[in-house]
Amino acid sequence: MSLEMLEQLEAKVQMAIDTISILQMEIDELKEQNSQLSMEAQELRSGRENLNEENEKLRQDHNAWQERVRNLLGKMEHVE
Known about the structure:
The protein starts with a helix and ends with a helix. The chain is mainly α. The longest helix has 77 residues, at 3-79. The protein has one helix at 3-79. It has one domain (1-79). The chain is rod-shaped.
């Protein structure tokens, strides 16, 4: 093998190593982003669940108030 071919091979190997290093850094960054997004998604799901629970409670309270108002109106009709 000639010295020139050996140098070309060495350059290609070095380029491959550099490319692998860059790709590994990108993978690490993407893993970190994925982790952050997963945590954010979990927080959003939790927040949505809390809002759904609060909404259901408010609906129940609203229905209870409507029933009380109906009862009071019914009593008022009997008074007249």
